[in-house]
Automatic annotation (TrEMBL):
<dbReference type="InterPro" id="IPR013785">
    <property type="entry name" value="Aldolase_TIM"/>
</dbReference>
<keyword id="KW-0456">Lyase</keyword>
<protein>
    <recommendedName>
        <fullName>2-dehydro-3-deoxy-phosphogluconate aldolase</fullName>
        <ecNumber>4.1.2.14</ecNumber>
    </recommendedName>
</protein>
<dbReference type="Pfam" id="PF01081">
    <property type="entry name" value="Aldolase"/>
</dbReference>
<dbReference type="InterPro" id="IPR031337">
    <property type="entry name" value="KDPG/KHG_AS_1"/>
</dbReference>
<dbReference type="InterPro" id="IPR031338">
    <property type="entry name" value="KDPG/KHG_AS_2"/>
</dbReference>
<dbReference type="GO" id="GO:0008675">
    <property type="term" value="F:2-dehydro-3-deoxy-phosphogluconate aldolase activity"/>
</dbReference>
<comment type="subunit">
    <text>Homotrimer.</text>
</comment>
<comment type="pathway">
    <text>Carbohydrate acid metabolism; 2-dehydro-3-deoxy-D-gluconate degradation; D-glyceraldehyde 3-phosphate and pyruvate from 2-dehydro-3-deoxy-D-gluconate: step 2/2.</text>
</comment>
<keyword id="KW-0704">Schiff base</keyword>
<comment type="similarity">
    <text>Belongs to the KHG/KDPG aldolase family.</text>
</comment>
<dbReference type="InterPro" id="IPR000887">
    <property type="entry name" value="Aldlse_KDPG_KHG"/>
</dbReference>
<keyword id="KW-0119">Carbohydrate metabolism</keyword>
Amino acid sequence: MSDTDILDRLSAHRLVPVVVLDDAAHADPLAAALVDGGLPVAEVTFRTAAAAESIRAMSARGDVLVGAGTVLTVHQVDEAVAAGARFVVSPGTSRAVVERCQEHGVLALPGAVTATEVMAALELGLSTVKFFPAGTSGGAAAVAALAAPFGGVGFVPTGGIGPGNLAEYLALGSVRAVGGSWMVPRDRVNAGDLDGIRELAAAAVALVSG
Ligand code: 3PG
């Protein structure tokens, strides 16, 4: 699947649940809960040692669009891609990370919150960036201001977003999707509260559709 296909799928769902998995055994049931909630997407962050195995378990299902998050190094890109990640998210823009993604033919979504950072991403051939951390970087107003000189650039705001302010971001034409952990709270994942996660995912989908 091409980068455009993956971006189209993320744009169609409009939401990217950002997952921190402490135990890869939770990956498959979590994926099932997201699918049941109508949100078959997950960004599995490399903040825990369980990331690669979790990506592998989720990807093997075949019914979830799985990406890697918090990817800081080329080694993590290799691990993520080997595990089946279809997109790679980073908190900032690293040329080495983006170029490794391009070598693998996997979509890179690096973080950018300034005009200089967006230009760096454009120079690397990208059209869409993660706007992170969204809340403390000026929120939806900052995304709108940044989008003005960069027609055609897409943003995936993430960080400090939840049901209360999701609509502000989704109202912007430049916003392809919104990421966040509110749909998959780490404590609920660890507690095996799959019903709760399914309900949070379904509620987020309802807000997006609403
Ligand atoms: C991320 O890694 O993208 C963020 O930590 C998610 O931010 P949130 O927890 O504020 O949603």
